[in-house]
Amino acid sequence: MADKKRIVWIDQLRGLAFYFVVLGHMAVSGDFEAWIYSFHMPLFFIISGFNLNFDRMKETGFKDYISHIVVRMLVPYLWLQFIALGLKYAISGGLIRVPKYLLGIITGNSFVVSAPSNPLYFVLLLFSAQLLIFLLVKLTGGNKGMVFAVILALTAIPVLTDSKPAVWHINVVPTAMLFMLIGRFFMDCYISGGKLLRRIKLPLYIIICVLLLVAGGALGVSNGRASIHANGFGEEYIIFVISATLTSMGFALLVMLLPSTKLFNFIGMNTIFLLGIHEPLLIFTQKLFPVAWEKWWFVAIASVVCYLLPVPVAWILNKAAPYICAMAPKESNLLIKISKFVALALVLLAPYISFTRTAFGGALSSGGGMTALAIAIFALVVVGLERLFTLLLPFFFLENKKEKKIEQHKKASVYEDDDIMIIMPVEEV
Predict the structure, then answer these.
(1) Which one has a higher pLDDT value, 391 or 302?
(2) By percentage, how much of the chain surpasses pLDDT 70?
């Protein structure tokens, strides 16, 4: 099997997509906001579709696949939601309703019940989309035409339930699946025509990118404000899909021209963490500068600051707590075990203090034996959860042997089905 390396432009494209998410959550209303919302989340699903691997899905058992996507999506989702809960509790001065936010974590849709980090709905939507695509591949024997036909038929669900909220955004899953298949088709074209693409003269190449961006943007703005999160697609669903596809392809081709930078590559590899943590940061920024928030120059500056500020934290967590960033550590070590204990303590601390103040009649502020009792109970809770996580999810700290076994049987002609680590044989890059 050939040696493998990452496709750099995919990481950079994901990093660019995350910036548009931050900018979209800060942008003032109008055509600019309509343009960003016409493609920024579809672009994420298209990127996720780059690595759909029907051949590997056919060879993978249901239990193995479920284990793989649970570790890479649902586990980070829970960690990040609890971290965001602690941050929002601190920012609000303890004024938030913790039980309501806990329910929001379960429902996964802020239009049903708000969660600590609402943008993380993307992770649940991606989990559901990948799981259903996997089931379709199994049922159809990997027939791409049949899979596409079924998904196309299922898009009637989001159209018929336009603007209606559902738990886990389950009615939007067909839209996510459709964009993922579009991403898979684009990657097939890239693999088969990569050499031809590189032969296009630079001026013509840039003209093609600009035409795609202009056409996609014009269609998106004219179609009106769209939002996958709100299950709203503007005036016409088909226009929404076409405009998002054209704009996403334009940015993908454009990013291929950019030189590799470690910063953008790192951001691209850590978008799940950054996606989950940026909303509390934006709330804090808005609280500090409520008047300036509506000014375009402030949005331009603050969006870059909020985009880059969590990067050092992500770098530290990559080393000490990779499970929070959707990274699977290759071996067990003491640093990771300590970090999990500390992380659990931090995410439980703020809500627990609120609970103990009520349950123990002000124990934490009264001093004496009741304070000691509250602290002891808190420590036992953390230890118990840490042990529970270790028993139920040993792959937090150990290399997943099932994944390794699957990898040994992987064909060299295809690339790995992994939304975090997209790799290809060297000769194909």
Answers:
(1) 302
(2) 77
**Residue closest to 176 by CA, chosen among 279, 290, 307, 42:** 42
SS3 (DSSP) at 240:
helix
130-139, 334-343, 355-364, 390-399: which has the highest mean pLDDT?
130-139
With cut-offs at 50, 70 and 90, classify the pLDDT of residue 90: confident
By three-state DSSP, how is residue 242 classified? helix
Residue written as tokens 């420590």? 379
Cα 429 from Cα 427, distance rounded (Å): 6
Contact predicate 209/254, CB 8 Å: yes
Where b means 16+ CB within 10 Å and e means fewer, 265-298 reads: bbbbbbbbbbbbbbbbbbeebeeeeeeebeeeee
* 19-25, long-range: CB < 8 A, 24+ apart: 19/303, 19/307, 21/119, 21/275, 21/278, 22/278, 22/282, 22/303, 22/306, 22/307, 23/299, 23/303, 25/119, 25/278, 25/279, 25/282
Q: Tell me 412's DSSP state.
A: T
| DSSP assignment string, 144-211 | HHHHHHHHHHHTHHHHHTTT---GGGGGGHHHHHHHHHHHHHHHHHHHHHHHHHHTS-HHHHHHHHHH
Query: CA of 221: how far to CAs of 74, 163, 211, 228, 242, in Å?
Result: 34, 18, 15, 15, 12
- Based on the number of CB atoms within 10 Å of its own CB, is 153 exposed (0-12), middle (13-18) or buried (19 or more)? exposed
Q: Which residues contact 78 (CB under 8 A, 6 or more apart)?
A: 105
Q: Which of 66, 73, 16 lies closest to 419, judged by CA?
A: 73
pLDDT of 8-55, one tens digit each? 899 999 999 999 999 988 876 788 889 999 999 999 999 999 989 898
Q: How many C-beta neighbours within 10 Å does residue 402 have?
A: 15
Q: Specify the length of the chain in residues.
A: 429
- At residue 329, the pLDDT reads 60
Instruction: Report pLDDT digits (tens) over 111-163.
Output: 999 999 999 999 999 999 999 999 999 999 989 899 999 999 999 999 999 88
- 3-class secondary structure, 101: helix
Tokens 């193995």: give the residue: 64
